[in-house]
Amino acid sequence: MLTYKNSGVDKEEGYKSVDMIKQMAVNTYSKKVLNELGSFGAMYKLGRYKNPVLVSGTDGVGTKLKLAFHLKKYDTIGIDCVAMCVNDILCHGAEPMFFLDYLACGKLDAGVSSEIVKGVAEGCLSSGMSLVGGETAEMPGFYNEGEYDIAGFAVGVVEKKKVINGEKIKEGDIIIGLESSGVHSNGFSLVRKLVTDLDEEYNGQKISEYLLTPTKIYVKPVSKIIKKFKVKGMAHITGGGLIENVPRVIPDGLSAVIYKDKIKVPEIFTYLQSKGVPEEEMWGTFNMGIGFIIVVKEKDKDKVMKKLSKYGENAYEIGRIEKGDNKICLK
Questions:
Q1: In terms of pTM, does the model score above 0.90?
Q2: Which domains does the chain carry?
């Protein structure tokens, strides 16, 4: 007799996984969540907004997951997944509201899945979001046993008149960079070509452990800055580095002039470059130590950096806005 379990899908393990995950999700709930896990859809009350604009973002963790598989350490990649989504919607001034995740695997292990979602819940708490739902898909024969994929979806809200999109950026404005926590979650297909021994020692630990450091979530400090100052533009520095992400918020006729010698490049990037990567490729692939940028008026820059420091962020001036045909210029 052929059953679903015989074909490779263990429903009981799925039920066990849900039971282990449920309380983690509930711990992230705000009063705006109107129903519990288990419904066909999550319900969330917007609250008091005159002209609300919903801002959404979706992303995954990419091949950084390979390091988690290697170390059998799964409790941080969920943070990465949240960070990749929520830092994006933050760029438009959105207040994060809720998050959903999608976890896929070949054979479900409730212990592993709960560790992954533990990281998702931690990321949601760090960004003030509610983890309102998700999906776990067990697909035997599609994924290798022991391997997982994770993706997420974040939704935030902002008053229409307070949307930040870069259109008010002007010549003379200052670009402030916020320090990254390392490589974050981009460029790992290249990293894995360069680092062939994931167990090699790096700064007193396995290099795979160091590289697994989760992506920094910038929501709480940056949200405070948005409320206190006129922020003109923001960018989350992900795949493509500063070169590809900063121009997304720069108006035509202006150029973000960034001085490379002002950026405190972490040693990990120098190490990766020493493996044979051209400098231009490094700057066009990795964040190089800057995970997020904020564009403000020159008169506000010192106050903004002082506040960011007070909020625990290492932030400093990395460039300015000038007239130009190229939306970014690295000098």
A1: yes
A2: 4-159 (3.30.1330.10), 173-330 (3.90.650.10)
